[in-house]
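tool_call predict_complex ligand=ribulose-1,5-diphosphate
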Amino acid sequence: MSIDYVVKSAEKIKNMEVRGAGRIAKFCAKVLMEYAMEIKKNFDEEMKKAAEILLNTRPTAVSLYNSIYYVMDYSGESDEEKRESLVKRAKEFIEWVDTAQKEIGRIGSRRIKSGSTILTHCNSASALSVIKEAYRKGKDIEVFATESRPRYQGHLTAKELSAEGIPVTLIVDSAVRYFIREIDYVIVGADAITVNGSLVNKIGTSQIALIAKEARVPFMVAAETYKFSPKTLLGESIVIEERDPAEVAPEELRSLVKIRNPAFDITPRHYIDLIITEIGAIPPEMAYLVIKERLGYRLLGEDELKLSVHHYD
Ligand code: RUB
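tool_result ok
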């Protein structure tokens, strides 16, 4: 296996064959682990190269950054010891993803009353874990899924939930306010949570939060603790990815007008009622504590590990 394997894997993240913050994080840990198992010499250098390639794929999902830093924080004298330590850390991270999403389902589902209708946006494994678990517990629920233009991740959500037997209504993104009176809860996932408790998630999330607040519908976020951003502790802002205009309009229109295609937006904390994490359902104001206690300053180690991240601004 050569570095090509890492480059091809990075390509899958860029073109969204592998997408969703949790899946991306788990995938990176797996790619680093597989590459580490094959390296014959110059372990540190080779791993650093691989980590940088993966880091420079999509800039917004903090879980990608946290996953790579967690795995790359290996120790040991010889290459063999380093490999063993890295593989152990990668397995720990993968286990963290799997157990956190399950636990979020268990904790979040307790908040859902039978007979309610939930609105979700995009396609979040953690948000869907809450919904599926509530349904598996026998609660009579229904879901409204937004289509999530321009990549239509809402179609994935609709298919995934209807495969479980959950009744789903698919709506266009701009119909949220029209239907809000039929909604009892909004549940979305997260690409990042900042130190002040703001949410970074799929473009359109902040408009939904605004509408939910106006209608007094509880707005909940399902986010594993590795979605919290240690870098925001130092005042660094989250970079919002802008994607190819071709995702939005055909060439005949692109040649006439400018097109902007941000993939994510920011929802300020006062629109968020609760963040459901694997360590409990917390108010957004607790974000600082999660970063301090769960992630630690160790994860700030961009300089320490000397990896270079291109900032897409
Ligand atoms: C996906 C998205 C999801 C979060 C959380 O965006 O915004 O809501 O990543 O998902 P994209 P999960 O499709 O552009 O990657 O809970 O699965 O981590």
